[in-house]
Write a structure and sequence with these properties.
Helix content: under 10%
Number of strands: 10
Strand content: over 45%
CATH architecture: Sandwich
Order of helices and strands: EEEEEEEEEE
Largest sheet: 6 strands, antiparallel
Low-confidence stretches: none
Strand order of the largest sheet: 1-2-3-10-5-8
Distance between the termini: 8 Å
Radius of gyration: 14 Å
């Protein structure tokens, strides 16, 4: 990720309209903003997973993810499982390690990709 051509600005996440994304179980609400030029756009999201959320896909996109509330369980394609609690983060590169998320009690995340 190269952060260029982004002026200083602030985001009031409560005012960003959420989009709903269904999982295999539960749903995710994404509040999304994009920054930078089209050829190098950075997506920044505030994501709320409902209690019992299970992702409907294996993700290969790279992210920097910070858990703000709840618990996030991330399973890698090789079977390893990582549990994030508030204040914990993970980082993964594009196409590095496919991952899938669950939030048994719900979770709130801040994601940059």
């Amino acid at each position: 990720m190269k952060m260029s051509d982004i002026a200083f600005n602030t985001v009031d996440w409560a005012s960003v309209e959420p989009t709903r994304h269904e999982g295999d179980a539960g749903h995710a609400l994404w509040r999304t903003q994009h920054f930078g030029p089209a050829e190098n756009r950075i997506r920044v999201r505030m994501v709320d997973y409902s209690p019992g959320y299970v992702s409907d896909h294996w993700c290969s996109k790279g992210h920097v993810l910070l858990c703000l509330e709840g618990t996030l369980e991330t399973t890698l394609a090789d079977g390893r499982v990582f549990v994030l609690k508030p204040g914990m983060s993970y980082q993964v590169a594009d196409d590095a390690e496919a991952h899938r998320s669950r939030a048994p009690s719900g979770a709130k995340l801040f994601v940059v990709d």
